[in-house]
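Extended Data, panel c. Modelled sequence:
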Amino acid sequence: MQTVLKALLAFALALVPTTAAVAAVQRDDPRIAETIDGYVRNRGFNGVVLVANADGVVTHQARGVSSIELGAQLQPDDVFRVGSLTKPLTAVLVLSLVEEGKLRLDGTLGDYLPELYAGTVVSGITVEQLLAHTSGLKDVPGNYNDPFWATAARQTFTPEAFARAWISPELSNPPGRFRYNNNGFFLLGLIVERVTGTSYAEAMRIHVFEPAGMTHSGVYDVRTVVPHLVSGYARSDLGTMDRPMFIDPTVSYSAAGVYSIAGDLLAFSRALSGDRLLPEALKARMFADDGDQYGLGWGVERWSTGEGERMTVQTHTGSVPGYQSLFVRADDGSVVVILNNFWQGLTTVEMGRDLFAVLHGASARTPRRSLSDLLTPIAVRDGVEAMEAAYRAAPTEGRDAYDVSEGALNSLGYSLLRKGLKDPAVRVFEWNVAAHPQSANVHDSLGEAYLSVGRRDEARRSYGNALRLDPSSQSARAALETLAD
């Protein structure tokens, strides 16, 4: 058995690209170079990284491949689809039209799209609520396992046709409560088209791309050839790199449809620092945290600088199948851009946080290896017991250590649940409870996993433990009330 486990561990490590696949590496700051090296070695990072401060670019690197099939190496100015990084760009576009008097923040769906929403329960939703994710609109399914993504999302729509079919005049919750919502940003694109008389893509070019000097950015469609657009990939449950699921770009539209390069996103940040895109009053409103670490189209967060201090940043992540991205900017002129074509999830955000801290004086950061990359293929191929044996054998110290923290285990457990691997998910949550018995959150998660496999008595006990540790837990209280029925 030990020989088999060693072979499995070696297989997992072999999936990580070597640091030899490097293009145009700048090593102006060895701590930043060391941090990027660590993510390539321990997390298999594949993409482009740009780090800048007020004085200019600190590093702009490409690591890995732009095409597995061709063995082509990434270049720093390669083009990526940026997913929901589209939302900050759409927000700037909308606010520029507010500045011109073509839109009002208090204008409503009934005002701008009367043929779709006048006289309905959603007619009073405002442009500002759409930007702030407080509209309460019913959204498209958030889980890519939902049949919507394998059927309707593969069709081509005009913006109005998609709105008629999939953005019904229904509320998931009363307006005013924050709930991330792609449909709201889709409708902003349609509103832009109504008030400008041109396409969303053309309005974006006129009001954002050209003023910001974003010469390699656009709105993606299936027909136009985009020079230097990299291929996107996704890791399969068996650990291989595969082509991702297809989603027609007309479904992404003004919520997730933009493509760009790292240098263009830096130019966008610099343009925002001046007055080329928006006046100060509108920027202040856009970047104001309304209480949910979100403004209008932007995350507004406090990020660690590594010495116990925190700095306010404006940020957004992006994800469409095959691509992951992160954009971070701060008022001191610092910018971190990460564009990833291996769809590597939380790795992209963790890398961005580490690079931001190092840029502001922290020591180099080396991430631990991913348990999900190691254990998911084993769970799929060999079952729960083999997964547990591999978990017990995985190193937790030294250069090749795996991340076995509470957060990493919880993330793995939910990933397995979403994939329908319920028994392995239960086992992972059980490990987490054993390792962190005083955490209400892990007991709550275990209760959810038990409930998914019909183990109601154990679910009741887990939720009870969660409520005992955290009497304010609404999720545990609601679950216990349901289980009492």
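The radius of gyration is 23 Å. This feature is highlighted in the accompanying rendering.
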